[in-house]
Amino acid sequence: MKTQIEKVFVILPNYIGDVLMTTPAIRLIKKIIPTAKITALVSLRAYSVIKDNPNIEKIIIRKDKLNFFDRLKLVRDIKNLTFSKFDFAVLFRDTVFNRLLTFFIGAKKIIKIDNTIAKSYKEVCCSAIENAFNCKADEKNYNMDICISKSDESVVKKFLSENDCGKFVTINPVSTRTSKMWNVANYPNLIDKVFLKYGFKTVIIGSEKDFGVCKTIYDACQYKPIIASGKLSLTETAELIKKSEIFISPDTGPLHISIAVNKKTVGLFGSTNPEKYGPYPEYAKIIYRKLSCSPCYKNVCPLTENKNLCMDQITVNEVLNQIEKFIAGEK
Question: Given this structure, which CATH class describes domain 150-328?
Answer without folding.
Answer: alpha beta
